[in-house]
Amino acid sequence: MNLPLEITVQGMPRSEAVDEKIRQRALGLERYCRRIQRCEVWLEAEHRHHRKGPFYAVRVRLTVPKEEIVVERQPGEDDVYVAVRQAFDAARRQLQDYERRWPGLARGHESTRRRPRTGAATRTAGRTRVTPPAGEPVPEV
Prior knowledge:
CATH superfamily: Ribosome hibernation promotion factor-like
CATH architecture: 2-Layer Sandwich
Number of helices: 3
């Protein structure tokens, strides 16, 4: 699926490797919700720490039907990849909560909907007996 993704970088030069990691993480979110309409990511390097180097703040905003999911990770990691991973993990958890709140709306495909039961299986004395749906003949074994 083609996810509209906007990446904004502040306080550091833009890196193709970091952009690619953000793209991979954003596309990975589609496994949890196929109805993501837009994904915006802000990456900011804070240069207040002269001994450890910059700390990275990451903000992810996802637009889904009926809601907007916002994850903001304050500067706390000195590795940009760890900061991106933590932000997208938090976004994934919020998408899973969204799926639980809006079960029929969030799924975009038929295979996840429950199908009606057509037969019943019972277990007696270590054997499994399958009862066919009403009107169908019992197969000979």
